[in-house]
Prior knowledge:
Layout: H1 6-14, E1 20-22, E2 25-26, H2 37-48, H3 56-59, E3 60-62, E4 69-71, H4 80-97, H5 104-124, H6 128-142, E5 146-149, E6 172-177, E7 180-191, E8 198-201, E9 216-221, E10 227-231, E11 258-269, E12 273-276, H7 282-319, H8 325-350, E13 353-354, E14 360-361, H9 364-374, H10 377-389, H11 392-395, H12 399-402, H13 416-423, H14 432-446, H15 452-460, H16 465-475, H17 478-488
Parallel strand pairs: 1-10, 5-8
Antiparallel strand pairs: 1-2, 3-4, 6-7, 7-11, 8-9, 9-12, 10-11, 13-14
Amino acid sequence: MALMTKEQYIESLRALNTQVYSFGKKVENWVDDPIIRPSINCMAMTYELAQQPEYEDLMTATSALSGKKINRFAHLHQSTDDLRKKVKMQRLLGQKTASCFQRCVGMDAFNAVFSTTYEIDEKYGTKYHENFKNYVKYIEEKDFVVDGAMTDPKGDRGLPPHLQKDPDLFVRIVERRPDGIVVCGAKAHQTGSINSHEHLIMPTISMTEADKDYAVSFAIQSDAEGVFMIYGRQSCDTRKLEGGEGIDTGNKEFGGQEALVVFDHVFVPNDRIFMCGEWDFSGMLVERFAGYHRQSYGGCKVGVGDVLIGAAAVAADYNGAQKASHIKDKLIEMTHLNETLFCCGIACSAEGHQTKAGNYQIDLLLANVCKQNVTRFPYEIVRLAEDIAGGLVVTMPSEADFNSDVKVPTVSGLTVGDYCKKYFVGNGNVPVENRQKILRFIENLCLGAAAVGYRTESLHGAGSPQAQRIMISRQGNLPMKKELAKKLAGIVE
Length: 493
Ligand code: SF4
Ligand code: FE
């Protein structure tokens, strides 16, 4: 099949029987659910842009397995050029959606599982790499979305998987059969889980032999028996139910999506298993997936940052403050921070190398430095955006108030809407409604629904800050640096 169009993608979701729960109820038609739909539109953008000739080079690639044209989100990177294009593609999508467009977790999982299965087979003579290659071919052919799923709920963080009071707090094998395995457990805050066709499960930490049953990687259809999802709510999410023009949602069309994905005695056939007890490779898989996803943040968050910088500048224009030197300086600082993140994404790509399996991997140290910066700079960018926009971002009356024709018993006899428009005017050349829209948009990005995918996800997505610091300490080669210093200082020990 050729690349799916945006419409075909949305229709393909309707064919799935994915079990979704939200606000305490089962959601039967989740494709058209007003709270979930923006995240589907966002994912659909990865299909829409792939159809446009001007983005063909970034959005599509030639499959290393079939030689056919595929969506880059299903691609096994074949060069450092591919790695750079990946980051640029993510920046583009961040610019077009100002949200988390979700499809990257699958791409990052593909590349990590591809190289790790090769090395497991090399050591143990297993057939996981062959299984995985066949799986990738199938996904490429269908142009499906695969949700790469790593993060287990983890329970008591001080205990390994096998010592948890509830053994399901990490995904595990509960039964081994001749034709496959049965698994139980869950993946938490799972990006893009509901609107993906498939899930690719990986372990979340490096393990010991005692955790053998938890060292498992496999693919499963999103609507397989025993799989269900509980939707994660977002700040201001019920504003999507308020009707009107949707001004108070800030970003009417797009949004991210996270859910708890539960596996309750799910059968996985042998040909969809990519790790089954090889605990000594769980660390490698985690490190590689996390590395790719930390690179990703040097693209997606930069694209969203571009939009936020633009929004802050528009708010300054509407306030009539655009000429103030401190405003100009704040916009420069935001740009400097944002481009620094992009530099990190490009640098870890340019310094990438080929794995034993043949695909390309980023430089792990630089990818972790990239993500560590992402845990900080978007917070400063958000602070500056809120500074420029002003307090009205969090004090403005609702769209319904602006539209209200309820008369206030005053001498002027104006309506509530009249008063809103009178007192929230900025630069007189701009309709008040535009000011409303840009301030709500900034609110959405800084502390509303999109803040999940921009601000807080910058901190915790692809691993919380400490996870990168551990990798930076492992990869930083301190002994070599000490030797450099000793040599130049003339120290002979
Ligand atoms: Fe992609 Fe960024 Fe969302 Fe991760 S956080 S899935 S890299 S858009
Ligand atoms: Fe993420």
